[in-house]
Every structure is written in C-alpha cells, then in structure tokens.
Amino acid sequence: MSKHPAPRLEVNLDKIYHNALTLVTNLRQRGITVTGITKATLGSPEIAETWLRAGVRGLGDSRVENIGRMRAAEISTLMTLIRSPMLSQVEQVVALTEMSFNTELSVIRKLSAAAKKANRIHGVVLMVELGDLREGIMPSFLKKTVREVLGFSNIVFMGIGTNLACRNGVSPDRENMAELSALADSIDATFGPIINTVSGGNSANLEWAFSGADIGRINNLRLGESMLLGCEPLHRKAIKGLHTSAVTLVAEVIELKNKPSKPWGNIAQSAFGEVISSSEQGSITQAILAIGRQDTDPDGLVPPPGIKILAASSDHLVVDVSNYHGRMKVGTELSFQLDYSALLRAMTSPFIPKIMQRSQMKFRIENV
Ligand SMILES: *Cc1c(COP(=O)(O)O)cnc(C)c1O
Q1: In ligand 1, which atom is closest to the CA atom of 40?
Q2: Whose CA is nearest to atom 13 of ligand 1?
Q3: % of the chain beyond a pLDDT of 90
Q4: Is 308 tagged catalytic?
Q5: What pLDDT does residue 280 have?
Q6: CATH number for the domain harbouring residue 351
Q7: Mean pLDDT, to the nearest integer, of 265-289?
Q8: Residue 265 Cα, ligand 1 centroid: separation in angstroms?
Q9: Given this model, what pLDDT does residue 359 score?
Q10: CATH code of 86's domain
Q11: Structural domain of residue 332, as residue ranges?
C-alpha cells in the first residue's frame, strides 16, 4: 500500500457504490429515481462517476462551481442546480446545468433571457414550502407561479419539489408528502398533465420512503449523505445494508505525553470562546493530532473505540489515549468516522488530500 500524508480522507469507492446501488434499487421498486447530490464532496468527479454507475438518474449540487468541476471532468448526465440560482450567476447556470430548483420569478425571468441568448432550453422545478421554512413557494401561491413560468420562453416547467429537515428538522411524513402529491394533482388538473418530476426531498425522506406509506406522486429523491455515510439524518441511525465506514479521516499524532487531566492557572475563555470544565482524573496519556477546526468539525468526529476527544483548536486535536498506553507513539495514525458536518468541512479543506480507493487496493489522490 502506498503511503499518503496525514491528515487525509480515505474514500472507499466500492462501499460508496454499494450504498448507492442499494438505495437506487430499493427506491426503484417504489417508483422513485435518485438524484445524486454532490455538494458534500465538492463535486468530486470520482464519486459522481461511481454514483452514475450505480444508477442514479442525474446529479445535483448547490453550487455551480462544483457542477463546473464535474463538467470539466466530462461527467455527462442531467445536472441540476438544487439551490435557487443567484441573479448574478444565471448565465453559468444555463450553460452548465439542464435544470434548476427555483422559488423566485425574478430569477426565472433572468434564466429565460439567458437561455434565449445562449440558444438553450432550461428546466425549472418549483420548490414548495411545506413547513421547514427554508426555501419554497407557499402552497397557496404555487398555481399562480406555475402559470407565469409556463409563459417564459426557453424555460420548461419540469415539476415541483420540497425540502424538509434542513432548517428546522421538520420530518417528511405521510401528511406533508401527501400534500406534495395533492399539489401535483391539482396543477395537472388545472394545466393538463405537465408535471414530470415530483422531488420529495433528501436523505431525511428515506424513513418515509421505506415505511410502507403511500408514495403517491413522489417519483424522485435527492440523496447525498445517506449514500456517503450510510446514515439517515433524522436520528443519525445506520441504514440497514449500507456501509457507515465508506469515508474515514486519518490524522497523525505529533505529541504524546502523560499529563494531568486538569489545567492549572487562572481559567478564562479558550481560543474558541468556551469555558472548559475538566474533571479531575489524575494523570492521563494525552495525544495531540495534527488536525483542527480549520480542517474539519471536531464535534462530528467519531474516534476509535477507547479513545476520547478532549478538545480542539484551529490546528490541534487533543485526545485521551490512556487506554492505548504503550501501543502508541509520535507518528501513529488514528482513523475517525465523520458525521455530515465533519465530512463537509474535511472534503472542502485544501489541507486534506482525498484518497480515492478502489478494489484491488489501487489508490489515487484527487486534486482539489
Ligand atoms: C443538500 C441537499 C440535498 C441532499 O441532502 P442529503 O441530506 O445529503 O441527502 C437535497 N436537496 C437539497 C435542496 C439540498 O440542499
């Protein structure tokens, strides 16, 4: 095995493939396609390609820059911008994507003008507010908005979607999903059968999708976290049959000493504004790892069994390795599992190389 520097993210593409294939196959049986959401991977072409092989129907990202990166790597599939386009970016949006999620007519008007100028057609999905209070048109204004969208040149109305469990943790359930289906029915009843896509939500929708509930008109979900981490985000429970260790973060020990567990001197705030309360546990074996808040979210790291994370500053992660006494030295590497927040920050950190691992133990470093 070739040696890569720490810290590094090790991404097991075989496990990611397995996760994606499992979800795509199970959702297909319920009439639901999957859009692979690449934003937590900074638009990694290798992860995108892995998901496409597993059968995702298209890719989506919240940032046009990430979509540009995948286009530059010649990833060819339906690309969706899943955040409402900035007015200042409509030209790039039209050039780089087939479709975007929208809530503002002023933006769609500009997309229409940009598409006309570029001699392209751009698809629009209208996002509906169903209670989580992030993006979305209030349901009572939806029909009026659809009517206007149908009048724009070079714009095709593709359907509707919603996003829950992001700002307020409102869970997708029978009621709000049935409401989305009813809105689709009512638009079709008014304007003729014009709805192609009904995108029910993100990884937080999986519990609903597999609960046996009536799927109704929902025919698409947008998945990122579940295909990467193997967890559902409502209770952060592992999903049956998925790998939860597809991505690991490896960091290196730079100091290892027996130290008191309690600080001494006059105690004020730490570098990040916390007042730390530490218990008196006598002397511990304390290790410092060369990774910090600049690289990841230390609160979202899961250490190896028997190791406890004590604190983190910009560049240092302090851990209690008393249980590993004698089995560790300066230079030892430790592997951590990551939650979504830790993953997002590590993936986007320029300090952390992403090591893409395939079968037969072939390794490749991906450039950021
Ligand atoms: C991030 C995001 C997703 C994907 O969410 P996961 O929890 O990673 O599955 C889907 N839709 C929208 C609008 C998003 O912003």
Answers
A1: 8
A2: 82
A3: 89
A4: no
A5: 74
A6: 2.40.37.10
A7: 83
A8: 46
A9: 67
A10: 3.20.20.10
A11: 247-355
Query: Would you say residue 241 lies in a domain?
Result: no
Q: Are 225 and 110 contained in the same domain?
A: yes
Beta bridge partners of 128: 137, 162
Cut 0.85: pTM above it: yes
Please name the residue whose Cα sits nearest to atom 2 of ligand 1. Answer: 202
| 200 in the same domain as 104 | yes
Residues 229 and 252 in one domain: no
User: Residue 361 domain-assigned?
Assistant: no
Domains identified in the chain, total number: 2
What is the residue with the minimal CA distance to atom 10 of ligand 1? 202
Tell me what the pLDDT averaged over the chain comes to.
94
| 82 in contact with ligand 1, CB cutoff 6 A | yes
187 and 57: one domain? yes
Residue 166 has pLDDT above 70, yes or no: yes
